[in-house]
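Example record

The entry below shows one chain as it appears in the dataset: sequence first, then structure tokens.
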Amino acid sequence: MLRKSQVLTVILFLISGTVWGADQQIDKFLTQFCVDCHSADSAPAGLDFTKISQDLKQPDVLRQWVKLHDQIDAHHMPPEEADQPSQAERDSFLDSLDQTLVAAEQQLAQTQPRLRRLTRTEYENTIRDLFDMPGIALSGNLPADGEAHGFDKVPEALDISHVNIAKYLEAADHVLDYAIATRPEPPAISTRRISLVNRGGFVAHIVMNGDGVLLKNGQPDPDFPPAGEQNHLDQGAHERWGSFDNGASVGLFRHEDESVSPYFIEHVTIYPARYRVRTSFWSFGWDQGTVLPGRGTEAARLSVVQLTGDGRGGQHPSYVLGYFNAPVGKPLEHEVVVWLNHNELIGFNTASLAPAANYYKKKRAMEFTGPGIVVDWLDIEGPLYDEWPPASHKLLFGNMPLVEFKQEEHPGVTPPDHMRPRQLGAGMNRPDPEPGIWTVHSEDPLAD
């Protein structure tokens, strides 16, 4: 172990070139109360004053000295078994060190900030703005960003590993797949009216078991009475009879939970773009089979759901599109334009209703008294484009024309590979016929 006189020489040499220069208060305190223990490889907490850097222009060094300041201020240093400074000595040291650290921090703040990479959220937002694709989803497939001091934008926490690079390249490929036009005309705009209860859907199951009811003209559908003590026939039979395709409104009593995820499953997005969504909601009261005026305006929630896996079941990732009023007894229409990605659909929830379940009760819906929210229908219109080719395509290729690739005109050339995404779930919308292989054409590729 170094003798105290040797340590003192090292400390004096280090301090003489630091931002606090010849501050004798700091020098005296460290020499008298710290170097005996913290002067070797075996020093507590690895803090060796013969090796510690004094360059407070380095953020890591500054943090280390701030930590040292706080430990001494909290009387954790020197330890109880060691010689203790008087309170006056401690205060004098802390005042000197505090002034030095504050000055160093201010100087550091005035220097040019360090460069860092974008966080995954910043990257996603940048791509959305750059390509005019305001809802394209990327961040969920990128590695989580590191954090420092509770923030995710600190340069030293945002490393760049081979995993980061690989995943960001995958994200870039995903963007290009949808940014580039591969047909001479945009996909046809269609408008589809969807019921919340539909063939093969989960909502039909919960209605059959008393957690909802089909309504016509504000009253229970005579062709599909509310579930009571005598249960309905199986769902398949009702689907074959068209019980869920007769234009009835759907009144739900049950709130979304881990086993109930109401989706408008008949539209599963094929072409990422903007879509216009219209819907009609109202609320009512229910008393064991009788429709009554509701307790007041309820809140219905629409969400955008990203199907995963094979698209079946519920609890898929989602985000809230909005909350909408459902006034008592009078349908209120709502409209919103939203970006939908491939294999996304619209979800629904009776947001303002308390959790309730009737499926286990003997008389099911005929035993329930409480509020409900009605979904008359939901229209989805799209895909909607301001121009074609879209802005994302023109950003990459300018005004270069799209031409059809004909293999006979290009012998030996491999045709461009166009992605044909798979549609998940039970969507009833279908892709447009493929127009052939179309790609950009340039008379001077090197210049372009």
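Notes for this example: The first strand starts at residue 190 and ends at 194. Residues 228 and 363 are 4 Å apart (CA to CA).
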